[in-house]
Amino acid sequence: MRASCTSLLLKLPLRFWPEGAITKVLEKSSLHPKPAGLVLQYGTAGFRTNAKQLDHIMFRMGLLATLRSRKTKATIGVMVTASHNPEEDNGVKLIDPMGEMLTATWEDFATQLANTEQKELLAALKDIINKEAINMKLEAEVFVGKDTRSSSASLSQAVLDGVHALGGQSKDYGLVTTPQLHYMVCCQNSHGQYGEATVEGYCSKLSQAFLALSKNASNRTDDQKHLFVDGANGIGAPKLREVESHLKKQLQISIFNDGSRGKLNHQCGADFVKVQQKPPTGVEISPGDRCCSFDGDADRIVYYYTDSRGFFHLLDGDKIATLISTFLKELLVQAGLDLKIAVVQTAYANGSSTRYLEDTMKVIVRCTKTGVKHLHHAAQEFDIGVYFEANGHGTVLFSKTAEEKVQLLAKSTNINDERKRAALLLQNTVNVINQTVGDAISDMLLIEAILAIKGMTVQQWDAIYSDLPNRQLKVTVSDRRVIETTDAERRAVSPAGLQEAIDGLVKKYKQARSFVRPSGTEDVVRVYAEADSQESADALAHEVSLAVHRLAGGVGAEPKPLH
């Protein structure tokens, strides 16, 4: 079979194959064999599953990244991480030239290549090369990074094996956060315009912008500068320490769950705090302490505190987007800049946040399907697009026009002091933000700067609006594809009768809303409900879960009431 595959490939024009590439791919792929029958799908988060099933995937994503690099004539990134998943899992995602997510056509190629049986691998490569008319004589460069999971070292080596098998050049960044690798790829392909493609360059750019912003804050006590950070026992903790060394004590950070003892993402991290609505396990925080949690690869962040009565208060992606967009809108008014600003949300955004932004702040709100690529794409349609998923993943995008107008105004000598100050604040805000992707460290520095400049406590920020109580549940089903949705995932179109059932249940409660959507990675259906009280939100979520279980092929026992 090997001989026939080889002869098939040799029918390609000579320009397609560097010398010895066929032999190298065959040799290396035999070291990373695909388990027969295993099928995986490249989703919004790339590939994610138990680490033991990923060796062949990593090798093949190294091959694919090398092809993508030749196709785009640019550096491509490959990040080995499973983000907020349990420690025994791992995953991989490819990063396109400007630090954005892999384009949809190539997601399909990733799935195709991953699921090709071993003996057909060369034919699958040929298919991609032909479809995309890739010149295999061109140089290729791939940046590789990994998180702190024990499986990441060998899996990232498999990626490198794939890159080298097709004659690509590689740069192994070792342990980095996912957003840092996105940043490196963008810096490299912008030829340094976006910044220097090193961890030191990243730390320096963000910290200098933060320090420039902090100069606009009135005198703050050490208590006001203090922030407790939950590192989810992941890569975020050591990388935050590297940034902290540049901050000149303008921010005093206490890091817990730093990976020295606990297990990655286990009862800690942004996802745990958001879903469980409580602080990380084993962490003692005093009333009023300002705290935040990263997720395992530091691309999500949520804030929280407990009040004097011991009640937990979460400030999630909705509250973060509101704080940032309010700050930016005020600066645009002060600077006299006519730029269109919008906040992009998903169906998970709390109804109170949407009403506050539209009715009080008069900011445009756009709702998209769940998934960062949908939010990112929608945010690009505005001069300034602020996007955050409720889970704390998000960033701010500035159009080229917006950046140029800000830079021009910041350099201007014939404007009044208020406009000048606002322009300089906007300029430094642009520089503290990692525009390539959601970045917990970058977002944290921006939030801390805004709170300092506005002289706000975390309690005052929280009081901007009151969240409607909500509950998220999930229902295991035999096939998640039976659920189809429309209207940015806010309404179900199949199975028959499900949306009608949800509508009927919602009518029973005040200020209520509920929707269901299939998971992108596993056979579960996610249920969201909000209402005027926690008791009502819990009851509605449970009743909708029952409807899903009965109408969409639920597996196992029916969901039990929460109370």
UniProtKB/TrEMBL annotation:
Keyword list, A-Z: Acetylation, Carbohydrate metabolism, Isomerase, Magnesium, Metal-binding, Phosphoprotein
EC number: 5.4.2.3
Catalytic residues (positions): S83
Cofactor note: Binds 1 Mg(2+) ion per subunit.
Domain Phosphoacetylglucosamine mutase AMG1 positions: 224-302, 316-455
Record-linked SUPFAM superfamilies: Phosphoglucomutase, C-terminal domain (SSF55957), Phosphoglucomutase, first 3 domains (SSF53738)
InterPro entries with a match to the protein in the record: A-D-PHexomutase_a/b/a-I, A-D-PHexomutase_a/b/a-I/II/III, A-D-PHexomutase_C, A-D-PHexomutase_C_sf, A-D-PHexomutase_CS, AMG1_II, AMG1_III, PAGM
Gene Ontology molecular-function annotations: magnesium ion binding; phosphoacetylglucosamine mutase activity
Pathway: Nucleotide-sugar biosynthesis; UDP-N-acetyl-alpha-D-glucosamine biosynthesis; N-acetyl-alpha-D-glucosamine 1-phosphate from alpha-D-glucosamine 6-phosphate (route I): step 2/2
UniProt GO BP: carbohydrate metabolic process; hemopoiesis; UDP-N-acetylglucosamine biosynthetic process
Domain of life, source organism: Eukaryota
Signal peptide per UniProt: none
Residues noted as binding substrate in the record, renumbered to the chain: E389, A390, N391, R517, P518, S519, G520, T521, R526
Residue ranges constituting the Alpha-D-phosphohexomutase alpha/beta/alpha domain according to the UniProt record: 70-112, 137-185
Catalytic activity: N-acetyl-alpha-D-glucosamine 1-phosphate = N-acetyl-D-glucosamine 6-phosphate
Pfam families hit by this protein: AMG1_II (PF21405), AMG1_III (PF21404), PGM_PMM_I (PF02878), PGM_PMM_IV (PF00408)
Cofactor list: Mg(2+)
First-tier enzyme category under EC: isomerase
Domain Alpha-D-phosphohexomutase C-terminal: 493-545
UniProt family annotation: Belongs to the phosphohexose mutase family.
Functional note: Catalyzes the conversion of GlcNAc-6-P into GlcNAc-1-P during the synthesis of uridine diphosphate/UDP-GlcNAc, a sugar nucleotide critical to multiple glycosylation pathways including protein N- and O-glycosylation.
Name used for this protein in its record: Phosphoacetylglucosamine mutase
Protein species of origin: Nothobranchius furzeri
